[in-house]
Design a protein that fits this description.
This protein is mainly β. Helix content is 6%, strand content 43%. Strand 8 and strand 9 form a beta hairpin.
């Protein structure tokens, strides 16, 4: 079950997103906005999501702040899944001490960066890798889970998910599989949009 919070479920410092743009009169760089996170919690407040930014096409258009307007529409629609088709999603995820998220697959190419704590990447083959601050996982539409090995400290990762072509193994198409505990997260499947 998911729940929306104005602050994150962890005790970690909130993210502040700073978006830049251009002053039309001078052409100089200016800050468009600075906003705190808009968090969603899952699995009884053991997992916190904060969508930092999205794009809906590649390459995005930055003219007349089109990308900002498109992002605001994607967030406001309530239909954003883990992946944004044709675009990207930048998301902060907080993992509670001892928590392991569901085994899942997104149809995307993801960069997962550990920014606080440690995390264990668990694959459906039972292969694992321990990751620490600064480590990066390149997740290529594989079944995986994340486990916070600490008994006392939260872990934070930043993910950038990029839509990808349908992944095939032989004749079998691999699609999104969100697993358990994701009620409330809209499907990223194109057919459901």
């Amino acid at each position: 079950m998911s729940t929306h919070h104005s602050v994150q479920v962890s005790a970690l410092r909130d993210n502040i997103r700073h978006i830049t743009t251009h002053d039309p009169a001078t052409g100089k760089a200016v800050v468009h906005s600075s906003t705190a996170g808009n968090w969603t919690s899952l699995d009884d407040d053991q997992l916190g999501f904060n969508v930092i930014y999205t794009t809906s096409k590649f390459p995005p258009s930055l003219n007349d702040d089109e990308d900002i307007k498109t992002h605001e529409n994607a967030i406001g629609s309530g239909k954003l899944g883990l992946v944004n088709h044709g675009g990207t999603v930048c998301r902060t995820v907080d993992f509670a001490p001892g928590y392991q998220c569901m085994m899942h697959r997104t149809q995307s190419l993801d960069y997962g960066i550990v920014v606080q704590g440690s995390i264990e990447m668990v694959l459906d083959s039972e292969e694992t890798r321990m990751m620490h601050v600064g480590d990066v996982a390149i997740q290529r539409a594989t079944m995986h889970a994340w486990r916070n090995p600490s008994k006392t400290e939260w872990t934070r990762m930043v993910f950038v998910l990029q839509d990808c072509e349908v992944v095939k193994l032989g004749d079998k198409e691999l699609g999104e599989d969100l697993g358990r505990g994701t009620e409330g997260i809209p499907s990223s499947n194109k057919a459901s949009l």
